[in-house]
Amino acid sequence: MIRRVLPHGLGRGLLTRRPGTRRGGFSLDWDGKVSEIKKKIKSILPGTPCDVLPDTSHLPPEHSDVVVVGGGVLGLSVAYWLKQLENRRGGMRVLVVERDHTYSQASTGLSVGGICQQFSLPENIQLSLFSASFLRNINEYLAVTNAPPLDLQFNPSGYLLLASEKDAAAMESNVKVQKQEGAKVCLMSPDQLRNKFPWINTEGVALASYGMENEGWFDPWCLLHGLRQKVGVFFCQGEVTRFVTSSQRMMTTDDEMVTLKSIHEVHVKMDHSLEYQPVECAIVINAAGAWSAQIAALAGIGKGPPGTLQGTKLPVEPRKRYVYVWHCPQGPGLETPLVADTSGAYFRREGLGSNYLGGRSPAEEEEPDPANLEVDHDFFQEKVWPHLALRVPAFETLKVQTAWAGYYDYNTFDQNGVVGPHPLVVNMYFATGFSGHGLQQAPGVGRAVAEMILEGSFQTIDLSPFLFNRFYLGEKTQENNIM
Amino acid sequence: MTQGANGQSLRLVAPMWNGTRGIHRLGGAVVPEGNQKKERKMLQFLNNHFYDVEALRGYLLQREMSKVHLKNRSFTWLEEQHGPYSAGAFFILKQGGAVKFRDKEWIRPDKYGHFSPEFWNFREVPVEAVDASDCEINYEGLDNLLLLKELQSLSLQRCPHVDDWCLSRLYPLADSLQELSLAGCPRVSERGLACLHHLQNLRRLDISDLPAVSNPGLTQILVEEMLPNCQVVGVDWAEGLKLGPEEQPQDTASPVPA
């Protein structure tokens, strides 16, 4: 569905770039008229070397206030909130640059689409709660006249996290924090688990936490499409190849010299050609997901002696994760939540027809090579299925239908997002590194980054533990409940 | 009203207004007839070419939404003065629904929206049944409904704003709720029905005529498996099957052939 709509969205976004339509919009077939005029001129004056009206409709605009690198859910969310929170309507020009308009490798589309509040950090819980209310009222936020209302296909079935003996104490304290922040989570003993979900085998489970409200899974493409169709933002398909920066040397209060850089031009290269367009900009947002480190390196982040602020790289790298879909006719019923086992394996129902999907995060030493998105079926046989079959005996007989792989933008430092400006490259803002929970926090993070840009500080949810500085200072904001 | 060439009336003044109200029914599925299609097309044309029309429609849409928000504002502040049962009952009655306190008669608002104030005295009497059919209750309004802790029967028939998120909020009533009716709710789908498994005391569930459910027969079977003690009403298992060629429907006036 989204592939049909995307070219339409691109066309609308770049409409005002064509010469002449800025004034009116009454000439309904301007493209046709332009090509007719060109043909006439060529026929009258044959052999004119230069094109009279060169066609630049595929290029991005030459000036833009904000350039968002990356057109996934995080980039679009930041663009959306920038337009929502700007003081004057149409006061800011936002350009979203996306390398691949089919989103074939983008983490958003390949995501399992879950949202849950069962985290250990209060900031993560608040972000998730806000995102849940955003998704619930999505038709109020993303209403476009003439378009049908968005149907997110949200399954409010909740998350069920299982803990073994050694993790039970941590789970209890996490649930306490979650309840304090307002998440509706309850603890269950193995007996209560067997009562409620008779298909579970509670061997090895000491405690379980079950999210009752605002948790479940939804269709990420629908959210992406909804954000894209909300007008006001320019889209461009191209790759960012260069940042042109200007530096300034300044003295700190401790009499140290520090070089502050600011990006004033972004070179966007078109697909399958050497053509590029320099876009003058004031602010750049790095929402490139698994490839954020490359974009950061282009801006000179990490080029310096290691151990200094200049030498601190952005520790986000792509990690490949597999998702398998299988059919099991006697499997758990309609009420099944997304179950996350003690071993790290997880699964959920998909649709009405006894299909399930799930996977497992591999251990550090088993990490697959992220060079491509090929699926390893042996991983399912050896590392995922045994745990699933142990936990749900009905899964001993199942048949794998299909599988796919996607990237986590994995933050190797502490598996939490990087949000906010860089201390040295003053106009680059990050919104990346969420290590698998970016989709569920996208609305909240988008709003936080927009507030940071427009007001100078976080207004609603304070995400200061997620700033870039922590990589240099060595302060980990560790999140324990990562799947 | 002038008559068009094929005998259908062309209403020149009314269409704009009907069109905006029709579009703003976010949950409703309207079958477009010839006239309405023309109005829609004209409206879309105007919308795409004039910023004023777009802004006006956006404003009207926002106004509709804020009306619903106003209806679903919180009445929980009434709880300390009059008790939870009266507060919840007041919310339902203001919306246009009916309540039944234990051992008392049904209290319904009349066509002007007025209802008798006798229920303010029932501090300790719990509400047994609520009939909120055709009311504009949404997710926020459920805050008020959930004050009625000992509710036994709830009817949410044809409520336009009750969706899957709302159903996930009904679990606090699990101890007492025995009867639930969701017939005709345009936004409830099988995903919302999955969260009804918390309501283990439910004895009667009505899920007929849910347009958003993709496969009604299969959904009925799965819901029956999920709630073994409950009688699930509404869908015939033969729903998904087509009639044989000998058995054509008698009345040709119905818009959707069986």
From TrEMBL, chain A:
It is found in: Mitochondrion inner membrane. The keyword Oxidoreductase applies. Its main location: mitochondrion. One of its GO terms (biological process) is mitochondrial respiratory chain complex I assembly. Keywords: Electron transport, FAD, Flavoprotein, Membrane, Mitochondrion, Mitochondrion inner membrane, Oxidoreductase, Respiratory chain, Transmembrane, Transmembrane helix, Transport. It is a single-pass membrane protein. Its cofactor is FAD. This is FAD-dependent oxidoreductase domain-containing protein 1.
From TrEMBL, chain B:
It comes from Macaca fascicularis (Crab-eating macaque). Gene3D superfamilies: Ribonuclease Inhibitor. Interacts with incompletely assembled mitochondrial NADH:ubiquinone oxidoreductase complex (complex I). This is Distal membrane-arm assembly complex protein 2. Required for the assembly of the mitochondrial NADH:ubiquinone oxidoreductase complex (complex I). Involved in the assembly of the distal region of complex I. InterPro entries: LRR_dom_sf (IPR032675). Belongs to the ATP synthase subunit s family.
